[in-house]
Design brief:
The chain has seven helices and six strands, in the order H-E-E-H-H-E-H-E-H-E-H-E-H. It is α/β, with parallel strands linked by helices and about 210 residues long. The strands form two sheets. It has a four-stranded parallel beta sheet with strand order 4-3-5-6, with helices on both faces. Helix 2 packs antiparallel against helix 3, helix 3 packs parallel to helix 7 and helix 5 crosses helix 6.
Length: about 210
């Protein structure tokens, strides 16, 4: 509704996005930020466009972006090293929301999404039964829930199918609240990786940025 310049950052950073199914249609997967390499490209797109809009601040944008992208490159390598500690036969992440496609491709894990998970406060018996059946058929060892999914539903499914739920939820659609373990982009990547690595039996080592 105004004349301010607008930049579709994700589309500029990732011009050929992955595809996924949503409401029965194949559409571009918007969850590009689950790859740290994509995060680097996003930061660079923001830097370049802010520099055009405010040339007097271009040096500041350049300096800040270099700091951020250096850390993201370190996090990218760290994630790969963390995932490598998981047995090859155990690298399947079963989630409640189809958001980790970019993470899976970037870091050599498989992702399966449980269909039928509800955000309603009181899931129906039919909904629970269908998801439990899927969990049992796939022989799911652990469910990685995301923040927006009804915890009552997940607990019921886990109990009836005799599987575990990861202690930490996955930050799937964005950052966590202020003060949470996913309050910044970097922390979100690190926390999600810790959740996955520990949940799948890998050996987690805390991220230590290099100066």
């Amino acid at each position: 509704s105004n004349s301010a310049p607008k930049i579709a950052v994700n589309e500029a950073a990732v011009p050929t996005p992955e595809q996924f199914e949503e409401d029965g249609k194949t559409v571009p997967d918007p969850h590009v930020f689950h790859s740290a390499q994509n995060g680097i490209r996003i930061a660079e797109v923001i830097r370049d466009n802010l520099g055009k809009l405010s040339p007097n601040n271009a040096t500041s944008y350049e300096k800040n972006t270099e700091r951020i992208t250096t850390e993201l490159a370190q996090i990218d390598n760290w994630i790969k090293s963390q995932v490598s500690t998981i047995s090859q036969n155990s690298r399947t992440v079963v989630t409640t929301h189809d958001a980790l496609g970019y993470y899976a491709k970037a870091y050599n894990v498989n992702v399966e999404t449980l269909e039928g998970i509800s955000t309603e406060e009181k899931p129906t018996a039919t909904q629970v039964k269908e998801v439990v059946k899927t969990v049992q058929e796939k022989k799911v060892p652990m469910i990685f829930a995301e923040l927006t999914v009804n915890p009552q539903f997940i607990e019921t499914v886990a109990r009836e199918s005799n599987v575990k739920v990861a202690e930490q939820e996955i930050f799937a659609d964005g950052l966590g609240e202020s003060g949470s373990e996913g309050e910044t982009y970097q922390q979100m990547l690190i926390t999600n990786t810790r959740t996955i690595v520990e949940g799948l039996g890998g050996q987690f080592t805390p991220f230590q940025p290099k100066s």
